[in-house]
Amino acid sequence: MRFYWANILYLSIVFLIRRLHDCNRSAWLGLLIIIPVINLFFMIYLLCAKGTEGPNNFGPVRETRGWEKVLGSIYAVLFPLGLILNILMSLASMSAPH
After folding, report:
1. pTM here?
2. Which residues contact 23 (CB under 8 A, 6 or more apart)?
3. What are phi and psi of 40, to 5 degrees?
4. How confident is the model at residue 13 (pLDDT cuts 50, 70, 90)?
5. What's the distance, Cα to Cα, between the start and end of the chain in Å?
6. How confident is the model at residue 20 (pLDDT cuts 50, 70, 90)?
7. Residue 98 pLDDT exceeds 70
8. What is the gyration radius of the CA atoms in the chain, in angstroms?
9. CA distance 61 to 17
10. How far apart are CA 97 and CA 40, in angstroms?
11. Do 73 and 80 meet the contact criterion of CB atoms below 8 Å apart?
């Protein structure tokens, strides 16, 4: 299970940095994700902000590679499934007699 979450963490960081660069923002802003409450508004910003048109401070627009699309799709499916599984396991452990 640790391997699963390590991969999710890695992909989350990669996609966070790419999204920030797409919006012409520094990757250091990604540290906002660890601040409670602010992280909710930051994620809403990342979901709603329009990326820059054409080249920006982080280079020209590049074509997304096929393997990146595949990893992104896998991430989009596995993250919610892992989250649901984690919640179910937590609920089961709370209801189990000690």
Report:
1. 0.64
2. 46, 49, 50, 51, 52
3. -65, -45
4. very high
5. 23
6. very high
7. no
8. 17
9. 15
10. 35
11. no
Paired tokens of 84:
């649901």
Q: Give the length of the chain.
A: 98
- DSSP annotation string for 35-79: STTHHHHHHHHHHHPPPPSS-BTTBS--PPPHHHHHHHHHHHHHH
Tokens of 97: 């007699």
Question: Which amino acid appears at position 37 of this protein?
Answer: V
Are 72 and 15 contacting, i.e. CB atoms less than 8 angstroms apart? yes
Span 32-89, pLDDT tens digits:
999 999 988 998 898 888 888 888 898 888 788 898 889 878 878 887 888 899 889 9
